[in-house]
Amino acid sequence: MDVQGGEELSLNMANKGPSYGMSREVQSKIEKKYDEELEERLVEWIVVQCGPDVGRPDRGRLGFQVWLKNGVILSKLVNSLYPDGSKPVKVPENPPSMVFKQMEQVAQFLKAAEDYGVTKTDMFQTVDLFEGKDMAAVQRTLMALGSLAVTKNDGHYRGDPNWFMKYVATVCMRKVLDWANPLVKAQEHKREFTESQLQEGKHVIGLQMGSNRGASQAGMTGYGRPRQIIS
């Protein structure tokens, strides 16, 4: 890691501060979701998609964060999925050094990714990347973006499509399970009745409604006819 990257990393950790109690427990669970094998796949794709000028990060969650943190590589990535003349994000010649400029660059990437078709449920928040709060969410967004590029098949995707096939299959399976889950729950609550129980139910319903023995139409008037009142 170069000196500037080390300074950024130290500054980032200083800005976050330590986590305590429940916050620390939650953060620990989030960090465990981060996939280092997936990180390698994403780095390979980004380098192939954007070109070798983007360099490579130090391995690991923090190295990946520092690499993407200023938003420039992310902006180049989403721009590479669009044809020339219609790039959605303006990329500065010099990487931004001011915090609000970096966050603004990341926000522009997120807007372009959403316009490209990434769903809001697959989008990370700016602080997830900038403060390293949820780098697994950053991975999820990039996987969604890559899988979309593969399925669009418009000639702008570069790299091995198989990198994202597992993710696409997982998303499809999740949708199938979401669709099937209400049916499974309905079957779990289905009740079986014996013939004697059904007959007993009919008897109970009859008693609840009361007897109609001796009922007649006497005193009833036809629909629409005025009732005659004799004083």
TrEMBL record:
<feature type="domain" description="Calponin-homology (CH)">
    <location>
        <begin position="36"/>
        <end position="149"/>
    </location>
</feature>
<dbReference type="InterPro" id="IPR036872">
    <property type="entry name" value="CH_dom_sf"/>
</dbReference>
<dbReference type="Pfam" id="PF00402">
    <property type="entry name" value="Calponin"/>
</dbReference>
<keyword id="KW-0963">Cytoplasm</keyword>
<protein>
    <recommendedName>
        <fullName>Transgelin</fullName>
    </recommendedName>
</protein>
<keyword id="KW-0007">Acetylation</keyword>
<dbReference type="InterPro" id="IPR050606">
    <property type="entry name" value="Calponin-like"/>
</dbReference>
<dbReference type="InterPro" id="IPR003096">
    <property type="entry name" value="SM22_calponin"/>
</dbReference>
<dbReference type="GO" id="GO:0005737">
    <property type="term" value="C:cytoplasm"/>
</dbReference>
<dbReference type="InterPro" id="IPR001715">
    <property type="entry name" value="CH_dom"/>
</dbReference>
<comment type="similarity">
    <text>Belongs to the calponin family.</text>
</comment>
<dbReference type="InterPro" id="IPR000557">
    <property type="entry name" value="Calponin_repeat"/>
</dbReference>
<dbReference type="Pfam" id="PF00307">
    <property type="entry name" value="CH"/>
</dbReference>
<keyword id="KW-0514">Muscle protein</keyword>
